[in-house]
């Protein structure tokens, strides 16, 4: 690098030696020519500097990033200081549209229930649920976007674990079909358990499959899937696989007797709400376990933070609301739809098939 003979910088300096922005040059030393000893036609000092500059090398160490910029984190879900996944510019709009769709589904369920049943209690219940979804949808219009942003951040943080839960359920479904092909019919086993009186509430002549029954019944595996993190995820994984086995086995058995259309009509109306709710609960449980593992191995500074609690609680409550909507649909729409579309098939198949429609709740403990 340029400097005097003693290693110091030239007193006069040169604007090519160093740049405030972070670049500099190095090359052959430049030394002034003694005019007294220079003969005629000798090069001047300026000429010497110019020729030396022609062979000099410029090094640019300037940072392309703006000053003070922070490097991006490798894991958007890593939350050591309260930060979390960025919901993105369209998150509020997308979740608002989803809330609108759920509100419409809730009000449609209320209208159908009012038309088919005399009891106004379930009508008021599902209509109130529609109001909750509608309020969630219009909250951005009122300047409140925190909740929808929290839901979006919750989905971004848990989506890998939700998908893992879906994979476990799908695996269980395949196993259930294979068991049926091997001669194991869980539908017959369920009928035997009913005959032995293991479910006395079902033997009551006044017993009815109401929304309250399905909410209580389905909330148990929902909560257990979350708490299953305490079992290192084994309970959560078992619930997903077990549910898949029973649904796959019973659906294949009933479908073989009545037809695939019966399976679709018996599962789709409420299953589009109930199954995602259970997958959300399992995803929350698996994510809790993963964060705990990160904390144990030192890759996370804090196991639980306030932002994480907020977005996880919002996400879990949203999943439970889906479960509640599924309960109303399963209690008041699915049976009417099956009776309307498959009355003749049900009468021909006998009481056994009629007593066990292929709904996903039949797999729940």
TrEMBL record:
Biased composition (Low complexity): 71-84
Protein source organism: Natronobacterium haloterrestre
Signal peptide interval: none
Keywords: Membrane, Transmembrane, Transmembrane helix
Pfam families named among the record's database cross-references: SpoIIM
The keyword Transmembrane is assigned to this record: yes
Domain of life: Archaea
Ranges of compositional bias, category Basic and acidic residues: 1-11, 47-61
Region (Disordered): 1-90
Name of the featured protein: Uncharacterized membrane protein SpoIIM, required for sporulation
Biased composition regions of type Acidic residues, renumbered to the chain: 12-22
TM spans (from-to): 95-114, 120-140, 161-184, 222-241, 246-265, 271-290, 310-333
